[in-house]
Amino acid sequence: MFATYQEALDWIHARLRLGIKPGLKRMEWMMDKLGHPENKLKTIHIGGTNGKGSTVTFLRSMLQEQGYKVGTFTSPYIEQFNERISINGKPIGDDELLQLANVIRPLSDELEETELGGPTEFEVITAMSFYYFAEINPVDIALYEVGLGGRFDSTNVILPIASIITNIGLDHTSILGDTYEEIAFEKAGIIKTQTPIFTAVKHPGALNVIEEQARQKDAPIYRLSEEFTISGHQSVSKGEIFSMKNAFDSLGEIEISMIGKHQTENAALAITSAQYLNQKGLISITDQSIRAGLKKAYWPGRFEILSEMPLVIIDGAHNDEGIAALVNELTNRYSDRNIHIVFAALKDKKFDKMIEQLDSVAVRISFVSFDYPRAATSQDLYEKSQSKKKEIVGNWQVYLNEAIHTIQQDCLLVVTGSLYFISEAKPLLCKYLNRANSL
Questions:
Q1: Of 278, 296, 314, which closes a domain?
Q2: Predicted local confidence at residue 173, as pLDDT
């Protein structure tokens, strides 16, 4: 038994050594031992390459505005580990995580002795979330973000009331496949029989795969630009405004506080799924709650403006599609600024195209590495850049402090790349900015 939160957390993190082990057998074994808490929950399942966390946040905020108690399971964390398991946006307490670890640890030890082998870090946390939302702090509805892929992801033991696939990109190709169609097949694994699927996937081949899986499962499908549409989009200083229409309703002048045109698509997915579930009597939600919830929705590390003076933005853009969205927003919003980008990535990512896109908007680009087993070296990143003003950074913590204190008025500092890096960089940036602003 663990006596402290830190002991429990160290045990969970130590399971990273087991890596990624796709498959549901270990989860099914643990769920059986726990009395199947996942079957006691009303859930919505959210998969895709980018936009999962934002879509979860839009849904959570709308449902919370309506008065529901909403559990969310997301990854990775940005500010603290506990936020991966949250209720109404509030991370579980340290004492609760300790309690959960003491429930799951004996099962993990027992499972280790079987032919299935011990559960991974992600499987342990997923099992903890099911038990928490069903038994310790019961929720009205739980929103589950897929960790990796979908078909063999540990969250895929649930039978949701709706499934959402945000988009498809070429990410995690060593595990999910090299083509959009192969990756779409893995993502489409969350589609369940006669359970509605909502998607913003645009790639024709990927969409065909999802449509075929929906047909085989007799699942109603709602597609962006088909069953629901967005119009009248305009960017404003603190977010986006757009209108949308679907089979259930039409809403004009919707305002969201998350920045980026792509966020209107994530919001439209959340709206359409909520309105469908409302029509079917599975939830109850008003237009007023939808509008208010969308405007209040906040997700850290997604084109997040940390400071206006000096202008500092962080964005967890960690694949081609994420970088494309970031570059698009920087071009549209800050074409009059000299953009300084600080970038870190994981070595198992194909970062050459990412860097090529960043080179196109950066007046200056700095490459860093960070303390994580899968982190790429700053040298590897540097060699992929064609920028005339590129540099390798040794100590990124010291470098960010210096960068903040030397930002010119016509400049913009963008810290981007791996979400694991962003989670380390954000608290330091906030500390440096507070110190700079107090001078």
A1: 296
A2: 54
